[in-house]
Each structure stands twice: as C-alpha cells, then as structure tokens.
User: Fold this.
Amino acid sequence: MLISGSSDNTLKVWNAETGKEISTITGHTGRIRAIALLGDEWVISGSDDFTIKVWNLETTEEFVTLTGHTRAVRAVAALPDGRVISGSSDNTIKVWNLETQKAEITLTGHQGWVNAVAVLSETEIISGSSDNTLKIWNLETAEELFTLTGHTGGVRTITTLPEKQIISGSSDNTVKVWNLDSKKAIFTFKGHTKGINAVAVTPDNKRMISAASDNTLKVWNLQTGEELFPLKGHTDSVYAVAVLADGRLISGSDDFTLKVWSLDTSEELSPLIGHTNRVNTAIVLPEQQVVSAAWDHTIKVWNLNTRKSIYTLKGHTDRVNSVAALPNKRIISASDDNTLKIWSLETAKELLTIEGDNRCIFAVAVTPDGKVAIACLSDQTLKVWSLETLEEVFTLRGHTDWVSAVTVTPDGKQVISGSFDKTIKVWSLETGEEVATLVGHTGWVKALAVTPDGKRVISGSFDKTIKVWCLETEQELFSLSGHTDWVSSIAITPDGSLVISASDDNTLKVWDLETRQVIADFTGESSLECCAVAADGVKIIVGEASGRVHFLKLES
Assistant:
C-alpha cells in the first residue's frame, strides 16, 4: 500500500500494484504536512491544524489526537519503542507517549521551523530546520549533541543511511550527504534550480532521488555523487517521493497527482499514455471499445475493460479533430487534412475517403441510422453527406464564423451546431433550413450534446459556462458555472440525469441536472479536451492535451 497526505486535508490509501484508491481518511482541518508509518497497521500524520493524529490503516479510524504544538506540525517520525516524534513551525520538537497522549520531551534550540525529523537509534534523533541547520539530539538526556552547518537555505528534508551517514535537502537547491562521525558533508549534489522538498534512497543504498520545486526529480549515484538522470513530467513542485521494494518510484506534486516511475528505464509508468499530442475526441462503442483521436494524426482503439490500446489507425496527414460511430463496426473521422475517412474496426483498415474541398473539417456527427454525416467546415458552413451514395445532400449556411461543434437529435431529424459566432443553430435535416438560433453565450460554443429524450441541448463555451436549453421553446433553462476556463466537451449519461464536462482548466466535472450541483470531479495534468460516457453511465473516458487517455469510474 501507498499512503499520501494532501493540502485537501485528507490521507489516501492506494493499492501500489493497481494504482487504485483503497480509502480516504478524513479528520484533519488543515493541510497534512507529514506522514510516517508506525508498524504495518498505523499511520501518523502531522497537519497545519497544529495536531498529530494516529490512524488505523485497516479501519481508517482515528486512534488518537496529540495536541500541544502552537503552530503547524511539519514533520513526524516513529521511534522503535512506539513513541512519536514531531517537529513544528513553533521551532520545537516533541516526543509523545501514545498511552498517556502527552509530550514527554520538548526539545528547543532551533531558531526556525522544524521541517524534518529522522530517527538514528532508540536514543538519538536528528532534525532539520529553516534556520539552515541540522541538530542531533540525545533523548535520554533531552540535550542537543551537536549541530551540522553548511546549508545556505532552510533544511526541508532528511533521510538516513547506514554507517552513520544522513542526507539532507535544502531550499538552497542542494542535497548534502553528511558523516556524523566527522560532522562534515561528504557530497553536495547540485543540479536542481529550486529548493529540495524530499529525498529517498533505493533499497540497496546505491541511488538517491531528490524531489524539488523545479517540478523535477533527479536520480543520483550515492557512491560517486553523479547525477544519473532526471524524471520530468510533473507540472508543479514535487513535494514527496518514496521508493517501492521492487524499484518503482512514487512522487507526489502540487499538480495534484501521484506518479509512478521506473528507476530502470527512467520512464513514467502509465498504461494510459498512447497519443503523442492533444487528444481531441473520444467515443465509447457498444462493443466495449473506446476510440480516441488526436493531433498526432492518429486514431486509437482501446479495450474499455483492460484499458489497453488494441491498435492504431493511421492515414490522416493532419490533426484528427473528431470521430463518430457508424453501424457495422465502423467509424468516421474528420481531420484538418480536409477529409472524412471511414474505417472498419474489424479489419483496422480505411474503407474510403470523402474529400472536403480543401477546407479543414473541425467536427463530424452521424444520424442514428448511420446514413447521413454532417461536418463542420472552416468556411463557416456545415456539409451534409449521404453515406450511402457519398454525395453531398446540401450545405447549411447561416453562421458568421467558424462552426466548431455539431450534434444530431436522437430522432435524426435535426442538426444542432455551435460556432465561434457565440450562437447555437438548429437545422432541419429534411429541408436543410434553419429552424432556430439560440443566443446567450458570451464566448464561442465549443461543445454540444442532446439529452436522450431529445428535449434539451447542453452547450459548453469559451465563456466558461454550460447552458441547458429547451429545444421546444428555444429558450435557455439555466446555466451551470464552476469551471475556470473554457468548456471543451460535454457528455450526457444514458439516463439523462448527469452532465459531464471537460475543460481547459484541467478538470472534469459531473453535474446532477436536477440539483444543478457538481457531484464528482477529476483533475488532469493538462487541459482536458474531450469526454465520453459508456452505456453503463458509470465509466467515463477523458482525453488530455498531454496525450493521455484517462479511464474513470463513477462510484456511489
């Protein structure tokens, strides 16, 4: 298991093999700054709420709360005899007896926050402080034994090595290895461009990993002092790092993510990375397959259950902007290369190409019977094609700027389009005439979806809002606000009760249409470009600008 503590005031317990969350532990009222294990059954946490808590990992219940610090608790550790050590922004270190729930010892001497504590033996501990020093303490006499000086910035993290050596990381951007006998630094590791927040050592004590505010981790050779390689992928400061017994590495960041890395290949371990550029669109098929398309010119087909890529469709020569499902295990794709392509999912082959007259095709939708395709072109029009004859049926004209989104009503009688001109238009597929124009957004309309009953259309816009419209009255019913950047994609669960929105603010939100409240959300590492929901209304697929495809599941 892996345990993480966060500024959302919670601890989470994860299965390190599957990457799935096992439980969430709540109770702190401030950011969790530090965690430590007490045996195999208990975890200790220190928080900005001035308290230390001990939790049962199996039941997630709180065992005890220790109070006495007058500022945030920034460091915790467990002694071999079961006592707990804590360091605080009140500049003190306390040793706690869990039976009496009292601090037996208070160590004073640091002139700044105590950011780190580590256990050397049953009777000796070491502390690191924002006063730039490390101090070694004797717990039997409650006295300071000596001070290590050399860092020019606050000491943020400490870990121990065999043979009376310790490692410290500092806000001066360096990591130092100290010999406690000579009381001197053996190595100083330089390479990070911002402060060091955490360090860890591999089980063989041959390599050290540092995590820093420059968004990177670095792997070092502890015997030579050389940097071996960096680990890049986080988009904000890296504050936590741990090494698993099998050699995998786990890091936690202010970008709200935990990453798993291989120390053998220096790669991030994620089976959900496949595209090499922005994932623009995704759909879920009845055959338990997911289709995603990206700006890397490719379309990928995934198994929804195993979350593995089955194959990649190549043939477009420019960005693939949209895909839609067709009958008989086929799909249609739209691209900036001015073409629509129809593919067989059985043979993984391209069946035919429809030329778009040298105009980029931004999006494509298909009628429920699979006989008609409607595409948005870069000349402000929509083209309607018969997929049986491959002939153009008619052109829909009326928007005054690029048409960016298109969808079809469940009865196949109407087309709905959204545009850079900030309007939504409803068209008759029988006559090709404009039926209505919906006005209300103050930014371009990026996403559209129709409820399964065909009565309402949901739109997402550059103005950061989602609007719900009545198709019969042609009126806006209400607006959903909460995203902090434009809404890129909209999906609706099959029962019509939930709306899922993906946004450039890196978040996905699940909205209850009846209460108009967000009931769940997810944060990616970069802007979320598309979303889709499976027939069960539970599995959600999200495409990210980084190239990742996330497989999510609604719970409860």
Observations:
- The chain has three domains: 1-149, 153-269, 279-553.
- The CA atoms of residues 403 and 419 lie 4 Å apart.
- The domain at 1-149 is CATH 2.130.10.10 (Methylamine Dehydrogenase; Chain H).
- The first strand starts at residue 2 and ends at 5.
